[in-house]
Amino acid sequence: MKKICIVLADGFEEIEALTQVDYLRRAGLEIDMLTTNKSKEVVGAHNIKVLADNTMESFDENQYDAIIIPGGSTGVENLINNEKILKILKKFKDDKKLIAAICAGPLVLDKAGVIKDETFTIFPGLEEEIESGNHINAGVVTSGNIITAKGVSFAPHLAYSITSYLIDSKASERLQEETLYFIEI
Questions:
Q1: Most buried by CB count within 10 Å: which residue of 9, 94, 110, 124?
Q2: All residues at 6 or more sequence positions from 24 whose CB lies less than 8 Å from its CB, including other chains
Q3: 93 in a domain, yes or no?
Q4: Domain assignment present for 182
Q5: What CATH number corresponds to the domain at position 100?
């Protein structure tokens, strides 16, 4: 079974992060919530407290096939200023492991230097802050081993894309059916 870590720093966007945890577990993937704090408790952008599975102090890159960076301006700023996270992202890029980011999360990828040769999407207006890479205006973009999503309403789409990447398109279709993606309002 493929194993994923999602990195939570204080100020992370709750829907973007927790949708990944919920949907990817439904898909049969193992996902750990790891916080950059010294304790397992982390507070999201909308003051929702989450008890993560562990802290980044326990991180062992050999355990994980993928890493996810959620958005949330304060959370992203905290990750940009975390050298350990930036080094991990560089290592995942070098090892061709999946890296996913949503909303403002691609700013962290840019700071780590992992999207310079990739096509990406990001929350509208933030593309001006990216120093490298090829921005396109799309909901979700897969480029090499990088998947990016524009923002909160694309959180399910990111999970479907990660599922397709790590398992296959049939698993993604099953997840879409289970989460009523095809149901009209």
A1: 9
A2: 4, 31, 159, 162, 163
A3: yes
A4: no
A5: 3.40.50.880
Counting DSSP H helices and E strands in the chain, the numbers are 6, 11
- Residue at token pair 């720093």: 9
Closest CA to 150 of 13, 34, 4: 13
- When divided into structural domains, the chain yields a total of 1
Q: Does any domain span residue 184?
A: no
32: containing domain? 3-177
- CA 154, CA 20: separation in Å to the nearest integer? 11
Give tens-digit pLDDT for 70-111: 999 999 999 999 999 999 999 999 999 999 999 999 999 999
Structure token digits, residue 111: 């700071």
The values of phi and psi at residue 140, to 5°, are: -140, 135
Tokens at 169, concatenated: 């398109």
Strands annotated E in the chain:
3-8, 30-35, 41-43, 49-51, 54-55, 66-69, 98-102, 119-120, 134-135, 140-143, 146-149
In this predicted model, which residue has the larger pLDDT, 38 or 182? 38
